[in-house]
Amino acid sequence: MKQKIVSLALSVLLCVGLTSPAFAAESDFQLSDTGAVLKEYIGPGGDVTIPSTVTWIGGSAFGSCTNLTSVTIPSSVTVIDIAAFSGCTNLTSVTIPSSVTMIDIGAFSGCTGLTDVTISGIDTHFDPAMVFTGCTSLTTINIPKNHEQYLLHNGVLFAAADPVLKYCPGGWQGEYTVPADVLKIDDFAFAVCTNLTSVSIPGSVTEIGVNAFGDCTSLTSVNIPDSVTLIERGAFDGCTGLTNVTIPKSCKVEKNAFRGTPYQAKKDMFRNILIGTTILVIFVIAAVVLVLKRKKTAVETADVPPMQKVQLPKSTISPECPQTVPTVKKTLPASGPKFCPNCGKPLTPGVKFCPECGKPLNGGEG
To answer: How far apart are CA 227 and CA 283, in angstroms?
Structure first.
């Protein structure tokens, strides 16, 4: 009887051992010499507890560990470095202890299965849009009410010191209305919120930041109020469902603000049509001007009589002989006789008969 009881107990213990969570062994971690820096996790994944000697989780330490399902971070840790848990697609939730003062860029980027995050410390510094970029299932983010950097309102993070909307979790579903006192929608605030279908922007907003709504593929329309003076580059980049946009005329729109959207494609099409039409009109006008110019030239040419060739007489002067100028003899009238040869009386020049004796004069002088 005792033997049967012992065998049953061993069986139960064996079953419990087989079904219990596997905790990470020391050999699953590559640590610094002091054990303070976790350089790399090389274990099989599952539920992992980080050693209590670790104060710094190094860059990409758990990068692309797709078998990691949960992680326990000890209170000894103060820094979670760049891309420390990037690409851990099966990690569903994480709690950051209050000892952590810095979560660096991309620490949990691409954790598409992450739904819930709790940040315990009031002085934990992080940029949520950069830390949780690509976390398309994230719906809940918790922070202390007296956090130094952020305020949490209806699941969305706002700057504590300024009326700036900082981050909407990537798993947001449906519509969102920006609060009436917000002045700016910050860079990447709604980036990759693929299930965001519409957003209402109040008249208090003056600026929409870089990539603020980037890759919000379910967003179909947006009305930008007259208060907005600047839409920064890539603000709606990759919003492949965005067809209707209303923008005030006074608003400055930076480069690629609507790149990759049907709205931009439509604008480009009309612009290309306008450019093509303008070029065609210029070509037609130039052609008409050229035809009219040629026609005018033809009319003017038809009104002028044709040139006639004039045959000049050939020169009789030999080219070898110099040309001489003919001498013109000047004939002076005869003065006639001064005295009548018959009677000796003086005569008037030019008379043919002597007035005294009446005899004819022969032109001689007496």
So the answer is: 43
User: pLDDT tens, 211-261?
Assistant: 999 999 999 999 999 999 999 999 999 999 999 999 999 999 999 999 999
Q: Report residue 167 CA to chain centroid gap.
A: 25
Which CA distances in Å does 343 have to 37, 111, 115, 350, 357?
Answer: 169, 162, 166, 18, 7
DSSP 111: -
* Residue 334 amino acid letter: A
Three-state DSSP class for residue 293: helix
DSSP helix/strand/coil, 363: coil
The pLDDT tens digits for 46-101 are: 999 999 999 999 999 999 999 999 999 999 999 999 999 999 999 999 999 999 99
Could you tell me the pTM of the whole model?
0.69
DSSP per-residue codes, 171-210? T--EEEE--TT--EE-TTTTTT-TTEEEEE--TT--EE-T
- CB contact at 8 A, 264 and 289: no
Radius of gyration of the chain (CA): 55
Nearest residue to 167 via CA among 181, 144, 180, 149? 149
pLDDT in tens, 143-169: 999 999 999 999 999 999 999 999 999
Contacts for 87 with CB less than 8 Å, ≥ 6 apart: 63, 64, 65, 66, 109, 110, 111
The domains found in the chain, sorted by start residue, are: 19-148 (3.80.10.10), 158-260 (3.80.10.10)
Sign (positive or negative) of CA dihedral 35, 40, 45, 50: positive
